[in-house]
Amino acid sequence: MTNRERPGSASFDLASLTIDAASPEPRYRQIVAQLRAAIDAGTLVPGTRLPPTRALAASLDISRITAVAAYEQLIAEGYLVGQVGAGTRVADVPPRPLASSRARPDGSEPPPPLAPFGAALAATPLALPLDHGPPRLFRPNVPDLRLFPGRLWARLLARQLRDGDLGLLGYGDPAGLPALRAAVAQYLTTFRGVRCTPEQVLITGGSQGAIALLAQALLAPGDTVWMEHPGYPDTTALLRASEVQLAAVPVDDDGLQVEVGEALAPYARLAYVTPGHQMPTGVPLSQKRGRALLTWAERAEAWVVEDDYDGEYRYDGPPRPALQRLDQSGRVLYLGTFSKTLAPALRLGYLVVPPSLIEPLTRAQTLLVRQLPTLEQAALAAFIAEGHLARHIRRTREQYARRRAALVAAINAVFGKRVTIGGSVGGLHLVVWLATSVSLERIVDATRAAGIELRTTAEYATEGAVRPGLLLGFALAEPDELRGGVEKLRAAIDHLL
């Protein structure tokens, strides 16, 4: 990398950046330390333009998310500035080294403003943009909120207040309202094949709240975690911020390649998997792979986190039984959410854990969040116990199956053999694998103006490149809208060829 903006300035060779894969220091922090040192030493002078994150990632053989995290950290510290269209440059007045600018009178260093975990969270970019604003065509992994039973939900909430149970307005059980834990246990036993008692159920702040709880309670910096590649970016980002080492285990048509995981990290502390409908490819974990995963977990004394984020939605038969049902050694931690079946705004999910973890995780949740909104828990408990949830899932499953079939038919009619539709017949999105050299980013940019909101498989990469594909959500639109969107997508791709 050569500074061409400032005559006579020093040059900086990108090849001088190195990554030590064996170091417990997260990779983005290794990049931050080297770039910060180069700026402090004057090797990188103000105004120097840094390479795009994609170029940096390719040069160091890391994920783009890691490169973005490094730049964001240095921007937050004032070393770099980023401008749309102008790239990322060294700040005109970078901060001076801490030793000379912040030393105390006795020569000691003051503590940094954030602890390591807080700094890591602040510097970790969101891999996917938050789904703010009105829903747009093809937005994946969100339910159609027009199908939410709003009037019924309002009556159930009002009933909790009208019945005069003042205990619902006070402090409650940090593990969750007992009535909701019992309702969730009954529902999971009946409809998902999960083996559990109400005491094994912890109510959480959605699936992300469950993952955060497990990361803080079970993982230490330097621990190794198997992460699907490609995999769920929010989990990847949270684990990176927790300073654990990620073993990117590839996914094929049978799901997680367990034998590769064993070769990469035979004694990993935990494996995070989405076996029912892999995120984002949609493939289910085969029974053979599932049993191999459980055998490894028992041998390595590792935990398996089974994220069953949309297991209720399968359109060619009954939902697949949970992996947890096969677990004989108490290694599977099963989690789910009501964000896909009801509404994301509820922020209610659940964890099913072995008896040995009930007390420590309840204590951890007590200190971290104290409790979740009790009125909403009471309304949800009634919603499940009175059969409304089962009826709502049947109704929405019928609607989503009809929309998915329309989208598949439209893709086949419009694209033919130019694309391949991937994944199982389930979930709220499908994957279109492309047989074209057109950049995924260019396709996303070209369709945005047409009101289409696409996700790409590249956004789900855990480490390195993944097969190019597009995620198309079908839950939000009627068949005619989906067919029109496919026509717009083809026009955008044809224009780029």
Description of the structure:
The protein has 16 helices and 14 strands. The chain is an alpha/beta fold and 497 residues long. The protein folds into three domains: 14-123, Orthogonal Bundle (Arc Repressor Mutant, subunit A); 147-390, Type I PLP-dependent aspartate aminotransferase-like (Major domain) (Aspartate Aminotransferase, domain 2, 3-Layer(aba) Sandwich), CATH 3.40.640.10; 393-496, Aspartate Aminotransferase, domain 1 (Alpha-Beta Complex), CATH 3.90.1150. An eight-stranded mixed β-sheet has the order 3-10-9-8-7-4-5-6, with helices on both faces. Strands 11-12-14-13 form a four-stranded antiparallel β-sheet, with helices on one face. A hairpin with a 3-residue loop joins strand 1 (80-83) and strand 2. Helix 3 crosses helix 5 and helix 8 packs parallel to helix 9. The longest helix is centred in the last third of the chain and has 28 residues, at 388-415.
